[in-house]
Amino acid sequence: MRTILRPVLLAALAFSTTAGSFSASHAASCDVQLKKHYKCSATYSDGNSSEYCLRVEADNGGGLFALAEPSGGFFLCSCGPRGKAPNVAFGGAGRDFVCLRDEIALAGKVTGSKLTGFGFGDLRSMFTCRAVDTCP
User: Fold this and answer.
1) Is residue 136 part of a domain?
2) Alpha helices in 6-61 (DSSP H)
3) pLDDT per residue over 108-128, tens digit each?
4) Is 4 left (phi over 0), alpha (psi -120 to 50) or beta?
5) Are the C-beta atoms of residues 29 and 63 closer than 8 Å to each other?
6) Which residues pair with residue 37 across a beta bridge?
7) pLDDT recorded at residue 70
């Protein structure tokens, strides 16, 4: 596991309990499906939009991962929970994930080679990311 994941494992796990529904039909946690690089586009609540790249740093099935930006910033992420109390597998959801960075939260889904979802902080956003071989 990369160093950037270690400091906030508990925070990412705690936040994952606030994720919405999850898909019980997927046996592996969402991070297993992630590709290494994504090219993304986002639309913001102020009417602006942007395109950017993300690099994935994952722990191969542990349910925790990071989405790193070329600028050096990163989101700490957790796959959503799977199961019902008291037998909950935190970080075990097959598609749903949540991420935190400073005062920005993201919630999304991994579907094949795509990431989709929404974010909120100072602005709300919707994003779509497609896997690519490399991204600056």
Assistant:
1) no
2) 9-16
3) 999 999 999 999 999 999 999
4) alpha
5) yes
6) 55, 132
7) 87
